[in-house]
Specification:
The chain is α/β, with parallel strands linked by helices and 516 residues long. 32% of the residues lie in helices and 27% in strands. It contains 17 helices and 24 strands. Helix 14 packs parallel to helix 15. The longest helix is centred in the middle third of the chain and has 16 residues. It starts with 17 loop residues before the first strand and ends with a helix. The N terminus is likely disordered.
């Protein structure tokens, strides 16, 4: 296709709610932002898109006062502002919800919202007054937030509502949302979009940082593209297409869908679950689950969050965990591993991309090369005789960073310094690199840009075609439908339905996910 140029939108008489002019930010040798320019009209939903490492989150953290620019200007409603910290930005009416929520799990939603802005007199926090105001906000914006339950016990969708309430309670008129749907199911995403439209109708300005082009098209008024730390341009969403935006983000023509033919039938069984049940904290989490994954096929698990997908992973990867009561049998590559530890299971040739990369997949403060080695330290390619070889480890890491396009590519860089999408690509590089016989992949493209999604999907297909059995768990129905040879729907801890490729529409899957 012939891509039209992205053109500026503002007329000289418009006063943007937020404007960034020539923002530059450098971290060591890495130029995160270079002359970034952004104009966001008041009372609109403005999407900011770009590849992982394009500088989106860095620019927004500068707008929110979390980072200080090395050069450039910030204007709020036409007034030049200099933010020393986030408190200055909050006083200017700017709020931000981060990709990984900043909530204290043991404490209630009310206490999390009040943290730092407690309405106190004589040292007494007046929770009743705060609760009344929050109920008014909930009614006004139809947020239906749970203020009394400990946050750790709430779904991610409920936690996200608390984060948005936190901004509204602080009188934010410009809301910056970083990958807000990365942890939401399609149903939760639709409800979330309704909330965004309601915020817009009340005069709020919303800046949406996202990789999901379908969501950009569905909810935004305008969209700005960043690439390699620089603004490519801005356009009205109505004049854009997903293909045009994807090509501008990556700088080349991108395949938005990867062709995936039907798998060849194979006799070897990579994974078997027979009558697996699991009880935790007095509740039945899995109920008599039977499933089989054969070598050379992709079996997808679809379901609304909280219907047993996480517990299914636990039953397979950590079957000997004693904090849960479990029944049934787990077999991997013909071996009964029901009472095995995770490291012994992985030694059979099992690779795992976990659903929570921070909690289960990475050591954030450690360098890339150490994280790339995790779980693979016994492989000969990383050793010199009986000892680990740092030279070999760093060499193998550097090759993987290049092959999987992880940026920046310095093996000694701390993982915390990578964007969420690049952290995910590091995990994929590590887990796919050992040519596993069974690949368990949970939320493989969560928070990953469109170019990397294309790459990761192709890696999953290539692994299957080499004979690897793949269990894919994803909240993205289009991902499940595109990749899975068979799709199993989970509902309340059980397998509620099974479909072969092409047998069910997204709507039909949605009905089964809802228990219909």
């Amino acid at each position: 296709m012939t891509a039209t140029l992205l053109v500026p939108l503002q007329s000289p008489t418009d006063i943007p709610a937020l404007e960034l002019k020539g923002i530059r930010k450098v971290f060591g040798d890495c130029v995160a932002n270079d002359a970034v320019t952004l104009k966001v009209k008041a009372g609109t939903i403005h999407a900011v898109v770009g590849e992982n490492g394009a500088g989106k989150s860095t620019a927004m953290k500068i707008a929110y006062g979390m980072l200080q620019p090395d050069a450039g200007e910030i204007l709020v409603h036409g007034e030049l502002r200099r933010f020393r910290n986030s408190a200055d930005a909050i006083r200017a009416g700017i709020g931000m919800v981060h990709q990984h929520f900043l909530l204290a799990g043991p404490h209630s939603g009310l206490d999390n919202i009040l943290l730092g802005v407690e309405p106190a007199r004589w040292g007494i926090i007046h929770r009743a007054a705060a609760r009344n105001r929050l109920h008014e906000l909930c009614t006004q914006y139809c947020l239906e937030a749970d203020l009394d339950t400990p946050v750790a016990q709430l779904s991610v969708g409920a936690q996200q509502k608390l984060e948005i309430l936190k901004l509204l309670y602080r009188d934010a008129v410009i809301l910056i949302l970083d990958e807000p749907t990365a942890v939401l199911t399609p149903q939760q995403t639709n409800a979330f979009f309704d909330n965004l439209r309601r915020l817009r109708s009340e005069g709020k300005t919303v800046i949406l940082i996202t990789h999901k082009l379908r969501e950009v098209m569905a909810v935004s008024d305008e969209v700005t593209v960043l690439r390699c730390g620089t603004t490519v341009g801005t356009m009205r969403t109505a004049e854009a297409t997903p293909q045009l935006l994807a090509d501008k983000m990556v700088g080349r023509t991108v395949k938005l869908t990867v062709a995936c033919r039907n798998a060849e039938a194979r006799a070897e069984v990579a994974l078997e679950l027979h009558g697996v049940s699991l009880e935790n904290a007095g509740r039945q989490r899995l109920a008599n689950v039977h499933l089989t994954v054969r070598a050379g096929e992709i079996v997808g698990i679809a379901g609304v969050e909280g219907n047993g997908q996480s517990e299914l992973l636990q039953a397979i990867i950590h079957p000997a965990e004693k904090s849960c009561r479990s029944n049934g049998t787990v077999k991997i590559l013909g071996r009964d591993v029901t009472n095995w530890r995770a490291n012994a299971i992985r030694s059979l040739g099992v690779a795992v991309v976990p659903e929570d990369r921070h909690a289960e997949g990475l050591l954030l403060e450690r360098p890339l090369w150490e994280n790339f080695l995790l779980g693979r330290q016994r492989e000969a390619k990383f050793r010199s005789g009986p000892f680990l070889s740092r030279k070999q480890i760093r060499s193998q890491t550097a090759s993987a960073l290049q092959a999987f396009d992880v940026r920046p590519r310095e093996p000694g860089n701390a993982v915390r310094n990578l964007s969420g999408g690049n952290q995910q690509k590091l995990i994929v590089a590590r887990e796919f690199g050992g040519n596993p016989k069974l690949l368990i992949v949970a939320q493989p493209t969560r928070g990953v840009d469109v170019g990397a999604i294309e790459f990761i999907h192709q890696q999953i297909i290539d692994a299957r075609d080499r004979g690897t059995g793949v269990l894919l768990i994803s909240s993205e129905l289009d991902e499940i439908q595109a990749l899975s040879d068979r799709t199993l729907v989970m509902y309340r801890g059980s397998i509620a339905a099974e479909f072969r490729r092409g047998e069910a529409t997204e709507a039909e899957l949605g009905f089964k996910m809802g228990g219909s």
